[in-house]
Amino acid sequence: MSFLHRILDFLFPANCSFCRSPIGNSAVPCLCSQCWGDFSAVRGPVCPSCGRPFGSPEALSHSPEHECIACRKHPPHYDQALAAGLFEGPLREAIHVYKYRPVRSLGKPLATWMTDQVRLKAPLDMVMPVPLHTKRLRLRGFNQALLLAHGAAECFNIPLVYDNLVRVRYTRPQVELSGQERTANVQGAFHLVRPDAVGDKRVLLIDDVYTTGATMNECARVLKDAGAAAVIVLTLARTSE
Ligand SMILES: [Zn+2]
Ligand SMILES: [Zn+2]
């Protein structure tokens, strides 16, 4: 957020964080109802594995299981990654405000929006958030993925497990790194406190944004190594590439 926007927010706190118009009687904090309604949901064909949107609307008409080049080259450890929206426009702003201002009260409505956009194909046994390292948790004050996972667990009626998958290594924020660096950065960063508890279980793993998928993929590797039957990743948003 620019310095000018910070001043505007301070002077006119009732303005939408994205379009700056008066927030009116919006049902959610920080965004007007128009911008909230303008979130870009993921539409059209996507890679059935990683959820990457395909350019052509016909991409999957002949072979619905056709995966993107990246997934064929390096099959991910998770079974499927679903994203509710594209990381752009007002959704991107909402995630930014939620995470960095931070505005925790956006967690619930964002989780509801996220779950409204996707359909789970098979029953799942537990919802897990991508964990934060305790050091980052202290800095940020909350785990943005945990609040989303909490909302998703309620909406889907699946038990939430937030204390099994933990981050054991403090890593640099992924946003500062390139694609290959991201994979190396998170290697060995996660650990299961009770690995037996995920054996033969189908896990829904939640995070806010899918960029390269390196973090979710590493979490999925740990879960699969412990015998998880399936790992489905769900994020609020993903980048379009
Ligand atoms: Zn607005
Ligand atoms: Zn893919």
What is the strand content? Answer: 5-15%
Radius of gyration from CA coordinates? 18 Å
Largest sheet: 4 strands, parallel
Shape: globular
What is the topology?
Elements: H1 3-11, H2 33-37, H3 69-73, E1 80-86, H4 89-100, H5 107-117, E2 126-129, H6 134-140, H7 144-156, E3 165-167, H8 179-186, E4 190-192, E5 202-210, H9 214-225, E6 230-238
Parallel strand pairs: 1-6, 2-5, 5-6
Antiparallel strand pairs: 3-4
Helix pairs in contact: 5-7
One zinc ion is lined by residues 16, 18-19, 21, 31-32, 34-35.
Describe the structure.
This protein is of the alpha/beta class and 241 residues long. 34% of the residues lie in helices and 15% in strands. The protein contains nine helices and six strands. It has helices spanning 3-11, 33-37, 69-73, 89-100, 107-117, 134-140, 144-156, 179-186, 214-225, and strands at 80-86, 126-129, 165-167, 190-192, 202-210, 230-238. The strands form two sheets. The protein has a four-stranded parallel sheet with strand order 1-6-5-2. It has a two-stranded antiparallel ribbon with strand order 3-4. Helix 9 (214-225) links the parallel strand 5 (202-210) and strand 6 (230-238). Helix 5 (107-117) packs across helix 7. The chain is globular, with a radius of gyration of 18 Å. It starts with a helix and ends with a strand. The structure holds zinc ion (2 copies). One zinc ion is lined by residues 47, 49-50, 52, 67-68, 70-71. One zinc ion is lined by residues 16, 18-19, 21, 31-32, 34-35.
TL;DR?
The chain is α/β, with parallel strands linked by helices and 241 residues long. Helix content is 34%, strand content 15%.
